[in-house]
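Structure ticket #2291
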Amino acid sequence: MMNMDTREKIGQRAVLLSVCGKIALTIFNFLVGILSGSTALVVESAHTFSDILTSAMAFLGFKIGLKPPDREHPYGHGRAEPLMGLAIVFFLVIVAFEIFSQVYTKIMTPNLSSPSYLAAVMAFAGIGVNFVLTSYSMKVGRKIMSPAIIADAHHQKVDIFACAAILVGTLGSKMGFPILDPIVAFFIGLMILKTAWDVFKENVNNIMGKVPSEKILTDIKSAALSVPGVCGAHNIRINYMGPCASTELHIEVGGDMELRKAHKLSDEVEKSIVESVDVVTLATVHVCPVGEDEENS
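Resolution: structure written out below.
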């Protein structure tokens, strides 16, 4: 498992870079949107501003999750991260609703005008900046196993497609189809709702303890079986606590093994699992004689 101090520094750097990039995009999207007459770009500036708020929420969840275990929270505070991921979903839904409201107002306006090519230039620049920010945040989030930063990266990814849609919509408007500008804004709202649903599912699964892959179960079993004296391992369970997890399992040993030796063996298995499986920070092992606990496997 990565050192917590290192994890904190990496996470803070990722969030800071994300916030700075989003502040710059919010300012330029709004100014260029007003100057060029692009409703979609103004809508995107509101969306980008919401990104700043969600990045701040991701950072808050990340910081709370770093707090060590205490008497009231013996398993630590890691679940603060997926909980903050769900809070981000709430913000995404609000932003989508506001976008749909602005689209309706724009469509109801007579004599729609086309935005200038300045909007297309800004949209093209936005694609590049958002791609860099999204890629970096997602890479860091997965590296340090931070549900909050990953959720924020998913939110940021929407902006790549949004800017691409604005680029197409602006060029289409200049070709004589001004209705494309509010239509693009509408599709941005739909993409935000899709992202909200994906982030919701991912964080709910984390909180409910869904096993992300069979490989983790296999790795835990392999780590247990690598300890001399262990004849088998079964009944493996994983309990996620945000970026890390605890595991419980049964190991099989010879039926005539002394209690003291069995206890020592279980300690060695716990140590082997924590050292071998990055995501696991706590292991609890139950020792049983070979063949006498098969009904629980």
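Closing remark: The chain has two domains: 4-207, 214-296.
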